[in-house]
């Protein structure tokens, strides 16, 4: 597979995954041409078409078109099944996926695609295994978010108190921002004593 595009009936691009190196200008041109070509086709027309030196396989699900470009020797029916499997994975994850799910959770849609396809080839045929990997990633992300929230709470509690002040015995006072207690200075110069000001 060369690339996969998801776009709406209005021609709005919702997801794009490129498996070949192309410039942004080329990608935009290809996207524009393909969206116009697919949207201009009648609903009862074949889901396969020859385009440039590639074959285009597409399928419409509700308001979204799933469109893949494959090389001449690749199988169109397998590509159609890949599209269907991806939609099934999205359905399982989001629970009856819709265009808004893709718009507001695009990172999850990309993650699911990356768990399913690698370099334009199917890497995992089992829906169960793909969904399990996604579930584990969600748990990890939730754990990391809780960790961040805990650290943010600790930091906010620390900032509620005013910044500590310090004094150096045998020298003029100074102010440093640290949570350390007493910090020895160079030998013979005294010690720093840090106290929380109230």
Pick out its properties.
198 residues, alpha+beta, Beta-Lactamase, five-stranded antiparallel β-sheet, three-stranded antiparallel β-sheet, elongated
Can you characterise this structure?
With about 200 residues, the protein is an alpha+beta fold. It folds into 2 domains: about 5-135, Beta-Lactamase, CATH 3.30.450; about 160-195, no CATH class. About 45% of the residues lie in helices and about 25% in strands. The chain has 5 helices and 10 strands. A 5-stranded antiparallel β-sheet has the order 2-1-5-4-3, with helices on both faces. A 3-stranded antiparallel β-sheet has the order 8-10-9, with no helix packed on it. A two-stranded antiparallel sheet has the order 6-7. A hairpin with a 6-residue loop joins strand 9 and strand 10. Helix 4 (about 105-115) packs across helix 5. It is elongated and about 65 Å long. Residues about 170-198 have low confidence and may be disordered.
